[in-house]
UniProtKB/TrEMBL annotation:
High-level lineage: Bacteria, Pseudomonadati, Pseudomonadota, Alphaproteobacteria, Hyphomicrobiales
Biological process per Gene Ontology, one example term: protein secretion by the type IV secretion system
Annotated Gene Ontology cellular component terms: membrane
Stretches with biased composition (Polar residues): 370-384
Protein name: P-type conjugative transfer protein TrbL
Provenance organism: Roseibium alexandrii (strain DSM 17067 / NCIMB 14079 / DFL-11) (Labrenzia alexandrii)
Length: 384
């Protein structure tokens, strides 16, 4: 009974992940709906925040004129000094009043322009990023064929790579949503900073609002470019893979998808920090993140290959024990994920044997131990 339940559960997972279809490709519209709802909710606060900013601005402007008048009175200034100071203060207040009135529209125009530059004249959204991952997984699903005459190792590697691609692009889409939320909420809540432009001592806060708008635009520009270029590269690799190189191409796609996720997580933040004047340690921060990204991607590709080999052995063992093709495929697919789940539990619980091993290395060790015919590769978990 337990085997039948596991087989049914695995079959359901296969149908959700492997089978391509139009309805699956449309799931990204949920992100578009979420983005629209956040935009509408943020827009409803615009009037309230704008009124508060205007009230703050004119209060500070009155204080500005009062301070100037007291200072001139203490100095017993002549009429010419009073007139020149009055003209200077009027020009100052008028300039920042103009920024207060038109600053939000100008900031939004800057962000939209940089966003369109990153999109290359096309369309870009979290839904498009998510659907790109689904499209790559759909192309790779053609390699998922189990049977005596089929390449079961390639099929299992394709399933693992598909899961990695979908997860990575889902995370990139989540980063995209987070940046869009930051743009809507940040530009809206930052309007109150424009109200601080009424006083010469606090005018820098109003200027920072415009700098922030440009930095958010640069962050979106970098993220959109990374997402579009990455999706085009992966789709090209998936379509151009030769029959003799499909296994390597599958692992390459999985590794590159991890690279895209890591780059999308760090590079836009670095661009934003550069615009805002934050230090990036003379480029060493970029080098450090790039090294971490390449190491993690290489470990993911190697670990995925080892888990695919172990899953292939699990399939052959199940077939030798008399299981049907479907049951053997289910057991082969569940074995790596069961090992990975157990490894993750050991890492979270702080098990002594899991201290110096990566999650993938520990999962491969557990997978080898669970198989009667263990694939070669050592007897202790190693970092992948």
């Amino acid at each position: 009974m337990a085997k039948q339940s596991a087989f049914i559960l695995t079959t359901a997972i296969f149908l959700l992940v492997i089978v391509p279809g139009v309805s699956l490709a449309q799931d990204g519209t949920i992100l578009t709906s979420l983005e629209d709802q956040i935009k509408s909710a943020a827009k409803s606060w615009e009037t309230t925040i704008s009124n508060a900013a205007q009230s703050l601005f004119w209060i500070l402007a009155g204080i500005e004129f009062g301070i100037a008048a007291v200072w001139l009175a203490v100095q017993a200034a002549a009429l010419e000094a009073w007139v020149s100071e009055l003209v200077r203060r009027i020009m100052f207040v008028g300039l920042f009043a103009f920024i207060l009135t038109n600053g939000p529209q100008f900031a939004q125009a800057v962000v939209d322009s940089l966003f369109q530059i990153g999109a290359g004249g096309g369309s870009a959204s979290p839904a498009n990023v998510f659907n790109s991952g689904i499209n790559v997984a759909s192309i790779m699903s053609k390699n998922v064929q189990f049977g005596l005459l089929a390449d079961n190792g390639l099929a299992i590697a394709s399933v693992i790579a598909m899961v990695v691609v979908v997860i990575c692009f889902s995370l990139v889409a989540a980063i995209f949503v987070a940046v869009m939320v930051e743009m809507y909420v940040g530009l809206l809540a930052g309007i109150i900073m424009l109200g601080l432009g009424g006083l010469s001592h606090t005018k820098d806060f109003a200027i920072r609002y415009l700098v922030y708008a440009f930095s958010v635009g640069m962050k979106l520009l970098g993220l959109v470019m990374i997402a579009r270029i990455g999706s085009q590269i992966l789709i090209g690799l998936a379509n151009s893979a030769k029959p003799d190189d499909e296994f390597i191409a599958t692992l390459t796609i999985a590794g590159i998808s991890v690279v895209i996720f890591m780059v999308a997580m760090y590079v836009p933040q670095i661009l934003q920090g550069v615009v805002q004047g934050a230090s990036v340690s003379n480029g060493m921060e970029v080098i450090r993140h790039g090294t971490q990204t390449s190491t993690f991607a290489a470990g993911t590709a190697i670990g995925s290959a080892q888990m695919a080999a172990g899953a292939k052995v699990a399939y052959e063992t199940a077939r030798n024990d008399g299981s049907s093709r479907g049951q053997a495929a289910a057991q082969a697919a569940m074995a790596p994920f069961a090992a990975l789940s157990s490894a993750a539990a050991d890492k979270l619980s702080g098990a002594p044997h899991a201290g110096n091993a990566s999650a993938l290395g520990l999962a491969n060790h557990k997978l080898r131990q669970s198989l009667p015919n263990k694939p070669t590769g050592g007897s202790s978990p190693k970092s992948s």
